[in-house]
Amino acid sequence: MDTSDDKKNAAPPTLRPEQDDRRWAGVDLMQYKQEGSAPFRDITRQVLFDDPQLAAQMRYFEMAPGGYSTLERHQHMHAVMILRGHGRCLVGNRVFEVNEHDLVTIPALAWHQFRAPDDAPMGFLCVVNAVRDKPQLPTPADLDALRADAATAAFIRT
Amino acid sequence: MDTSDDKKNAAPPTLRPEQDDRRWAGVDLMQYKQEGSAPFRDITRQVLFDDPQLAAQMRYFEMAPGGYSTLERHQHMHAVMILRGHGRCLVGNRVFEVNEHDLVTIPALAWHQFRAPDDAPMGFLCVVNAVRDKPQLPTPADLDALRADAATAAFIRT
Fold first, then answer.
1. E strands, B17-137, where?
2. To the nearest whole angstrom, how far is the Cα of A108 from the nearest Cα of chain B?
3. Which of A150, B41, B103, B149 is exposed most, by the fewest CB atoms within 10 A?
4. Which residue in A126, A138, A146, A156 is the catalytic one?
5. Active site residues of B
6. Are the beta carbons of B79 and A103 separated by less than 8 Å?
7. B41-94: per-residue pLDDT in tens?
8. How far off is chain B from A38, nearest CA to CA, in Å?
């Protein structure tokens, strides 16, 4: 049967060329998250690899100028490579400058957030386990603790 | 104890910048495989992410001009993104032209081989399950079957 579910679960074609800057043939440009589920700004998601035979997924997230990802944490780790542009990220209690092809490891339960600069987009690959826990948002007490550090306080967007 | 095993298994620093073209801080440039274990030419391996908490590994392979990976197959799938240059690859019984950022899916048991052009390097990211089977090399009968196709016969290096 050729139902939409079958299509969704079908293996991708062998080759999916990049068609435009960080847009791929046959890969849907998706919302980052459900609207209203968590704070974020001007960010899109593309799922590049998601296969029952693969224990991980590879996704590509891109922020427009001034965009940022949700400030969150979770038990699963993130394996990140910056794939477009440059920007900054919070991991744990430190803010890092990041550039194209840099590798970022986000350990279990580390608070993290990515931000594009105001004048250019920034995108990154993110590999995660296919089976993983849901992100946690900071409580007011968590935010107070994060804001005890001046650099972190100036960086985070909530 | 600070043994070399501890170091090997220690979590990487949060940020590992790209230091030179597709070379990363704190990532060893390794041989592709054991010498003599299988046919290949002018190819290096860097393991970018390999963590007990991650169900997959992300590796980066780069071929010098004229280099090629081993013609092989295995049960585990490969999730590939070209990260440097352009070239060609065999997947199954087809030869594809590939360019930077293109995505290549190598299904279970598909014969595959990557080749850089003669005048430039080509590199690719490859995500695989952390637990996986060993590659199989083609038997003489497998090679005869592959060479029944003229384009494949012209492409493969053994």
1. 18-20, 23-24, 30-31, 41-49, 56-68, 78-84, 87-91, 94-98, 103-106, 112-115, 122-129
2. 9
3. A150
4. A126
5. 126
6. no
7. 999 999 999 999 999 999 999 999 999 999 999 999 999 999 999 999 999 999
8. 24
Q: Which residues of A touch B107 (CB under 8 A)?
A: 11, 14, 53
A-facing residues of B in 47-76 (CB < 8 A) are 48-49, 51, 53-56, 58, 76
pLDDT digits (tens, 9 = 90+) for B100-121: 999 999 999 999 999 999 999 9
The pTM (predicted TM-score) of the whole model is 0.93
Rounded CA separation B62/B49 (Å):
16
CB–CB contact A24 B101 (8 Å): yes
Q: What does the block give as tokens for A72? A: 């969150």
Helix (H, G, I), strand (E, B) or coil at B128: strand
What does DSSP assign to residue B137? Answer: P
Q: Which of A9, A14, A19 to mutate to test the interface with B (most CBs of B within 10 A)?
A: A14
CA dist B130 and B53 (Å) reads: 10
Pairing of strands A103-106, B15-16: antiparallel
Residue A154's contacts (CB-CB under 8 Å, 6 or more residues apart) are none
Instruction: Compute, in degrees rounded to 10, the torsion defined by CA atoms A131, A54, A59, A17.
Output: -160
Domains recognised in chain B with CATH numbers: 16-155 (2.60.120.10)
